[in-house]
Amino acid sequence: MTGYTVAIDDTPAAWKTVEWVDGALRPGDRVRLLTVSEFYGETYTRSEGRLDAAERRLAESHPDVVIAHDIVGGPTADRLVLDGSRDDVLVIGSQQVHRFTATLAGRVAERVVAHSTRPVLVVPENWERTEGPVLVGVDSVTAAAALGFAADLAGRSGRDLVLVRAWRPIYDSLPYSGVYLDEDRDLWEHEGRLELDAAIRAIGKAHPDLHVRGARREGSIADSLLHEAAAEHAALIVVGRRHHSALSAFLGGSVSEEIMHRGHTPLCVVPPTAVPDAATRVIENAATAARVSRTE
Q1: Between these two residues, 96 and 54, which has the higher pLDDT value?
Q2: Which is nearest to 241 in space by CA: 224, 259, 216?
Q3: Helix 143-157 to helix 278-295 angle, to the nearest 10 degrees?
Q4: pLDDT at residue 175 greater than cutoff 70
Q5: Mapping DSSP to helix (H, G, I), strand (E, B) and coil, where does residue 128 land?
Q6: What pTM did the predictor assign?
Q7: Residues 100/235, Cβ–Cβ less than 8 Å
Q8: Beta strands 66-73 and 212-218: pairing type?
Q9: Residues 95 and 238: beta-carbon distance below 8 Å
Q10: pLDDT at residue 230 above 80?
Q11: Residue range 178-223, pLDDT digits in tens
């Protein structure tokens, strides 16, 4: 049983969240449809009408799912983080076509992703449903929590799980940092292979009925996931989160932000507070072994 908090406002992206949840629900799940009303926002009657319409749509498709709705006070990002913590997954929309408007509105999706203690599933406003696999990014920093979530979701939906490990040698260096030259590319590729193989074995052991395969790509994590998603017609991309604020993600570069702004596939960002299961700990051990072998 999975509990979803689904954010709905008056944007096209918000209705895509309802469409996504409509296809994801299973018997016994529960849904809370949520509108955050800020000061000088829309009227209560209009918000209530939209929530009623969304609830009727889901109830017709899923009579065995518990559905409720609520209107709460803002500010929007803070309230979504707070209320989203009550359930297993927070589902929000993301504006891509109107990115300038989204920026003026305060980058709500980015702020929610950066601060949420629950997985946040972001549905782009131009999303169209596909029957492809679930993709998950594998790396030594954020993979453990994301892998367990992606495997569970793929199993629930009856989809394949594709583990994507991106790698590339580091050519530049900052003061006091290590310098890795092009000659080290074999070591970086070897580390990626170790982590991907360990992840496939761990997930296969924990989910023996799940069809799991791997893909290794040279390049950035975001580019690799977006390329694989397009090639596979992926239903969902899952990544871990390493930043703790929208500002640090913006300044340091964020995989999730790149995918949110450039991709057409729903993205689920899993925070590090999610506890990895025993199987995904194997990946962390493999990553440690790979780093040791690289420095020897």
Answers
A1: 54
A2: 259
A3: 140
A4: no
A5: coil
A6: 0.82
A7: no
A8: unpaired
A9: no
A10: yes
A11: 555 555 666 667 777 888 888 888 888 889 999 999 998 888 889 9
Domain 134-295: give its CATH architecture.
3-Layer(aba) Sandwich (3.40)
Q: How many Å apart are CA 279 and CA 201, to the nearest integer?
A: 9
Q: Which residues pair with 216 in a beta bridge?
A: 165
Instruction: Examine the pLDDT at 67 and tell me if it is beyond 50.
Output: yes
E strand or H helix at 121? strand 120-124
Per-residue exposure over 150-170, b if at least 16 CB sit within 10 Å of its own CB, e if not: bbbbbbebebbbbbbbbbbee
34 touches 120 (CB < 8 A): no
Closest CA to 87 of 12, 135, 33, 141: 33
Whether the bond into 266 is cis, omega within 30 of 0? no
In what order do the strands lie in the sheet containing 236-240? 66-73, 30-37, 3-7, 89-94, 120-124, 267-270, 236-240, 134-137, 161-167, 212-218
**Residue 71 and residue 40 in contact, taking contact as beta carbons nearer than 8 Å:** no
pLDDT confidence of residue 251:
35
Using an 8 Å Cβ cutoff, are 227 and 164 in contact? no
**Cβ–Cβ < 8 Å for 87, 56:** no
Mean pLDDT of 68-82: 90
Q: Which residues contact 175 (CB under 8 A, 6 or more apart)?
A: none
* Three-class secondary structure of residue 288 per DSSP: helix
Domain residue spans in the chain?
A: 3-124, 134-295
Evaluate whether 3-124 and 134-295 have a shared fold.
yes
pLDDT of residue 178: 53
Q: What is the three-state SS of 170-194? A: CCCCCCCCCCCCHHHHHHHHHHHHH
Q: What is the mean pLDDT of the chain?
A: 81
The reported pLDDT for the residue numbered 249 is 42
Q: Which residues contact 53 (CB under 8 A, 6 or more apart)?
A: none
The CATH topology of domain 3-124 is Rossmann fold (3.40.50)
